[in-house]
Amino acid sequence: VQLVESGGGLVQPGGSLRLSCAASGIIFSAKWMAWYRQAPGKERELVATITSGGNTNYADSVKGRFTISRDNAKNTVSLQMNSLKPEDTAVYYCKIVGMDDWGQGTQVTVSS
Predict the structure, then answer these.
(1) What contacts 99, CB < 8 A, 6 or more positions away?
(2) How far apart are CA 70 and CA 29, in angstroms?
(3) Contacts of 79 (CB under 8 A, 6+ apart)
(4) SS3 30
(5) How far is CA 103 from CA 8, 38, 57, 112, in A?
(6) What is the DSSP string of 46-83?
(7) Residue 78 and residue 85: Cα distance in Å, rounded?
(8) Measured between alpha carbons, how far is 48 from 32 in angstroms, rounded to an integer?
(9) DSSP secondary-structure letter at 89?
(10) Among 60, 96, 99, 105, which lies 20 to 30 A Cα-Cα from 5?
């Protein structure tokens, strides 16, 4: 199993970023996928999940600002992040729900 995140960077408050995660080694379309994040000095937290059928769920802190989506043809899961806040600064990871594999993560920094 391999998970490769991309799309992070430095953005000003109020800006947007789109993260992507390419998965391999699994039957992607059958898997629930999730995005997590870990800020400095804090525990890793669940940000959003998407079921194999496309149903989504979000942490209260990102609801209305972030959108998780998947492309089963490309084996990718994405996280569109809008109206970013400094408190969104973290390393973002994608994960296969129910499995222990993690990618290397992608850094998101929201700062003016």
Answers:
(1) 1, 26, 31
(2) 9
(3) 18, 19, 35, 47, 48, 66, 67, 68, 92, 94
(4) helix
(5) 13, 13, 21, 28
(6) EEEEE-TT--EEE-TTTTTTEEEEEETTTTEEEEEE-S
(7) 19
(8) 11
(9) -
(10) 60
Locate 7 and state its tokens: 């799309």
Q: C-alpha angle with apex 95: 38 to 17, nearest 5 degrees?
A: 60
- 87 phi/psi in degrees, rounded to 5: -70, -5
What's the CA gap between 53 and 55, in Å, rounded? 6
Classify residue 102 by its DSSP letter.
Answer: B
The CA R_g of the chain, rounded to the nearest whole Å, is 13
Q: Residue type for 55, please? A: N
Nearest to 6 by CA among 23, 18, 24: 18
pLDDT digits (tens, 9 = 90+) for 49-79: 999 999 999 999 999 999 999 999 999 999 9
